[in-house]
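look at this:
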Amino acid sequence: MRINRSLRLGIGAVALTLAATTAACGGGSDKSALDNAKDGKLTVGIKFDQPGLGLRNKDGSYSGFDVEVAKYVAGKLGVKPENITFKESPSGQRETLIENGQVDYIVATYSINDARKQKVDFGGPYYVAGQSLLVKADNSSINGPDDLKGKKVCSVKGSTPAQNIEKNYPGTQLQTNDTYSLCLEGLQAGSYDAVTTDDIILAGYAAQSAGTFKVVGKPFTTENYGIGLKKGDKELRDKVNDAIEAMIADGSWKKAFDSTVGVSGYQAPTPPTVNRY
């Protein structure tokens, strides 16, 4: 069967249009984070619902220790704060956001562990936290993880604290949500007996609650917070590690902590030593 020239040209045009549309609908940029930094812009993943760490304020601005760390690192990469686009990065989506190029790096209470290192790389740690428990202020029955048997405990999908409870405290009725905000709503309503995540996160929630919630017990894990970035990007990882070390050395790390988490009364610990993973 012969196809006339005009029809062939029409088919070719449609094919080009489809190809362009497919490319435009891709999951993220093909450019590396350092290429984006050279252009003077970065997209950084943070949490939007963690007071003192990563919070989107009512006026659309962002505040918290993670935000300050993210801005400091960006500055060392040559990018001004006003040229950073902050993208919400829920715990269960962080690896996907990095792998798809939707963010250049993530600073979002992101614990470094072996399973995650199979998919992404980390700079840091820039902070060492520990898992703890948040309960209502009038709760006297929960004082640590050994009291969780038969209790309804909420954490976030894909988070290290949720995995720890599931693995090491099998008698607990673990419930998971997409965000800690939903866990807090359930705790307030009486749907859950406790919320579990890292102590530094819970301290922010307790401070914000004006006496409604309290943190109980001592931390029962060690969580090294790292800056998540694309697997195999050694140049970026080295630059991120250099930035974290500089932030600690020049006093910016403690200043950032005191002006964010420290407002709740939580004392700044000794800064960690960067591990060149």
